[in-house]
Amino acid sequence: MGTLCKNSNSTPVKSTDDLKALMANVLRKATEQGATDASVSVNHDSGYSIDVRVGEVDTVEFSEDKGVGVTVYIGQQKGTSSSTDTSPGAIDAMVTAACDIAKVSAADPCFGLAESSLINNNLPDLDLYHPWSLKPVDAIEKALACEKIALSLDKRITNSDGVNLSTYEYKHGYATSNGCMAVLDSSRHSISCSLIAKLGDSMQRDYDYTTSRDFKDLMDLERLAKSSVERTTSRLGANPIKTQKLPVIFSSRLSQSIFSSFIAGVSGSNLYRKNSFLLDSVGQSLFPEFISIYEEPHRLKGLGSTPIDGEGVPTRNNKIVQNGILNQYVLGSYAARKLGLQTTANSDGVHNLTVSPTTGGLKEMLRKMDTGLLVTELMGHGTNILTGDYSRGASGFWVERGEIQFPVEGITIAGNLKSIFKQILDVSNDWNVNHATRCGSVLVEEMMVAGG
């Protein structure tokens, strides 16, 4: 039985000129109501997602969402309000609400827009917008075809957990009273295939997916189906291993999670709250000297590419770690002021974080490890940003003599992030193109693995 869902708002705002006019109007109204500074963001997103399972349509969901939000400053007081209604009356009410909140809020000397000297509206085109004229009926056919291929490739694939295809277009505008006025268009398309395999008493589920800005860059359906089958069947017969310390490889499918924890540790909100294991660490050697970590926010078609951050500050290729040494923190304007520093154009996080590779592909890394654990899935959220303690449920494969021997599940890997960072032996070049972080598989010299 298929289900049709639709989420739509009246009075749509579609064109770039419409968004600019709306933002200018909001800023004008904020000034008229006493705001000394203001910022406004507008979005208009549309697209659809379809799910099929076992040869039938499960869900077709269309969406067309829009919203506008305003932040006003009255001196050093701040108020924020938002609305999904862009009619004149709703805009007036939204601005009034933000100003009323600001008037009763506590003053903070670190509140305010990004410095006007940083604003530059001459933004590069990053080739992020590639609309897909695929009709829903054709999308359903593609998803059904992918599932059919997958179910035919291996008798151990006994069921499907579904194939999803989605295509979305985004239009985002941001403007400030000190000169920023930008509208960005982008798109994102994806297909995923999830399967269930069974052999004897062993039953496993796994999946693969493909996502990109340009639909032409998606993995073809046959390759996606085959990869999903291989991932699922390879897990059959998995068992725990005994508790021990051993080398661990984080596959490129999940290695970015290690560096996400690193970024959290050097991000302004955690630093000024003193909730980080990496306080006062600029200039310190956190990684081996062959590790460099940097941003590439202007990479064409990049999933994390953007010409500006969430405050309208132009992004740049921040060199966060050079030769293993922490070169800078990751900051927006508020956190920077709290710390007596300058924004690094990261008010909304990092953009296309890249970890420089040190070796070839995964096979080369497996040979170097010789004996140890290849982790391909992590479970839970066992990372303590204050202490750096790390403990996650995991599954993957046991490796001997540089070759995968058998699947492993029901284990926990643990360590401290500072130690894990320093014990990185290699980073491979097998980047996961489906993720905004460009990082290959990572070999760590030793971790505690708790098993059966």
- Number of DSSP strands? 17
- Return the CATH class of the largest domain: Alpha Beta
Q: Which stretches are poorly predicted, pLDDT < 50 over at least 5 residues?
A: 1-12
Cα distance spanning the termini: 42 Å
Considering DSSP H and I runs of 4 or more, what fraction of the residues is helical?
Answer: 10-25%
How confident is the prediction overall: mean pLDDT? 95
What's the story with the biggest beta sheet?
A: 7 strands, mixed
CATH topology of the largest domain: PmbA/TldD fold
Return Rg in Å.
24 Å
Characterize the overall form.
globular
Q: Summarize the helix and strand pattern as letters.
A: EHEEEHHEEEHEHHEEEHEHEEEHEE
CATH architecture of the largest domain: 2-Layer Sandwich
- Strand-pairing-aware structural class: alpha+beta
Q: Which key features would you list for this structure?
A:
2 domains, 452 residues, five-stranded mixed beta barrel, 37% strand, single chain, globular, seven-stranded mixed beta sheet, alpha+beta, PmbA/TldD fold
Outline the structure in words.
By secondary structure, the protein is α+β, with helices and mostly antiparallel strands. It has two domains: 3-233, PmbA/TldD fold (2-Layer Sandwich); 238-452, no CATH class. It has nine helices and 17 strands. The chain has helices at residues 16-32, 88-104, 136-153, 221-233, 256-265, 268-272, 333-339, 362-369, 417-422; strands at residues 3-8, 37-53, 56-74, 77-83, 157-176, 181-199, 202-212, 244-250, 293-295, 319-322, 325-326, 353-355, 372-379, 389-400, 403-416, 424-427, 442-450. The strands form three sheets. Strands 1, 2, 3, 4, 5, 6 and 7 form a seven-stranded mixed sheet that branches. It is globular, with a radius of gyration of 24 Å.
